[in-house]
Amino acid sequence: MLAGLAVLGFAGPFEPETAAIGRRLVRDALAVWHLNDFADPAALIVSELVTNAVRHTPCRSIRLLVRRPGTTRVRVGVVDRAPSRLPVFSPAEVGDESGRGLFLIDQLADRWGYDLRGSGWRPWGKEVWAELRIKDSA
Fold this sequence. Notes:
Layout: E1 4-11, H1 17-32, H2 39-56, E2 61-70, E3 73-80, H3 101-108, E4 111-117, E5 125-133
Antiparallel strand pairs: 1-2, 2-3, 3-5, 4-5
Helix pairs in contact: 1-2, 2-3
């Protein structure tokens, strides 16, 4: 299977449909790559990444990336223009109604993290990403 890239840019205002559009993009990209078995976890990860970007940054637009960097990995990521608002993994308390997004991502993904975007000492944004490990179908 060849590596590939699908990109979707979201422009504000953010609405509940934003995460749904992201889930559809991920499912479509995975279907093209014949990786439908990974659609549910990837869609949930994208929902959490988009929700976190909308909730925790002042950005009015984000970009969703769905990549297949090789035959054994799928990477989904959300790029925003808030490099100083880095993801913080903290456990939610039993009665909390939110705060479990990164925990879910951590449980579903093989690995996750963030990369600052831009060069030099003043980045313009960041990408928060998660990778799913897949079996090589070749």
